[in-house]
Structure prediction request, 89 residues.
Amino acid sequence: MEKIRTTVRVAGKDYTIASYDPEAHVQRVAAYVDRKLNELSAATRLPQAQLSVLAALNIADDMLKAHDEITRLRRELMETQQKLEAARK
Prediction:
């Protein structure tokens, strides 16, 4: 499988990303990062480097919360499946 080169715009700058993911996915990721940077830029007066670190921390926080929610839902699904199997017996 060949990498796909996609040009994205984040914080007003163009970046060429090489990825195995479809171009639409790479564009979606870049749009998410750009949106986070814009939100933080509007709320703070931090220099670009600090703003980027803060955005990375916020994105990592979003990802970890989503991961925790997926884990919780999987656990809940397993418990529900076990209850269903027990009820069938």
